[in-house]
Amino acid sequence: MKRVGFVFAMLVIAMIGTAVAQTSGPAGDFSYYFVTYFSNGNTSGAPDAVLRLINDGDYSTAQTEGRPNGNLWASIYVFDDSQELQECCNCFISPDGLLSESLNKELMANTLTGRDETSRGVIKVISTSNDDPTYNVLTPGIRGWMTHIQATSNTYSGGKWVEKGPFFVTETKLADANLVSAEEAALETSCSYAITLGSGYGVCSCTPEDHDF
Questions:
Q1: Residue 53 neighbours by CB under 8 Å, 6+ apart
Q2: Region 70-90: what's the mean pLDDT?
Q3: Helices in the chain by DSSP H: which ranges?
Q4: 98 contact partners, CB below 8 Å, separation of at least 6
Q5: Rounded to an integer, what distance in angstroms lies between the CA atom of residue 4 and that of residue 174?
């Protein structure tokens, strides 16, 4: 009986140790690819949508003060609702830094096709440790949210349905997504073509840190 009791006690201790290890170890989200949508961009009477990204410090290391320490870049790819890449860019975010990007003024103001009437589409973000949206070094640490402009009515005008106000603003966290190699290559290649062939168009702009567009 003593031996059985001893074995039982050891099993309990092992289970407690395992539980402590599971709860005290790293429990963060190591995602580096995020997606969201936008609606009612460049729409008369509608407020502007905003993409906000932070560097959570996950990439930081014990460096001497004054040396680069965990800097990240957000590679941003903006598509219209016809699945066409309209703009891409790569924006710097230092640890604990905040990047605020206006949809109308920065993400859809310099479209590759010159279209300014696009009101709906998709935004994809890659967290990377280098400053080139055509070649990403996948590195977790960026987290993001986006406001969405929701219409309450619509009307048929000019051969198409146009959303009308009053408009309401909602905000959601960017959705984690699985970045397969084919998708990563497609994003980087499309962005490279936009930069090379766009003659200045197709490149979004980045708000400096500590500024709000």
A1: 74, 91, 93, 98, 99, 101, 125, 142, 143, 144
A2: 95
A3: 2-24, 181-197
A4: 52, 53, 54, 209
A5: 53
Peptide linkage before 166 cis (omega within 30 of 0): yes
Residue given tokens 């909602």 in the structure block: 170
Q: What is the DSSP string of 117-159?
A: ----EEEEEEEESSS-TTS--B---EEEEEEEEE-SEEEEETT
Report pLDDT digits (tens) over 163-193: 766 899 999 999 999 999 999 999 999 999 9
Rounded CA gap, 149 and 167, in Å? 6
Rounded-to-integer distance, Cα 99 and Cα 91, Å: 8
109 band by pLDDT with thresholds 50, 70 and 90 = very high
Looking at residue 17, its pLDDT comes to: 47
By CB neighbour count within 10 A (0-12 exposed, 13-18 middle, 19+ buried), where does 26 fall? exposed
- CA 202 to CA 49: how far, in whole Å? 19
For residues 206 and 16, give the distance between their C-alpha atoms in angstroms, rounded to a whole number: 49
Q: Which domains does the chain have, with CATH numbers?
A: 27-60+68-197 (2.60.290.11)
CA angle (45, 91, 104) in 5-degree steps: 10
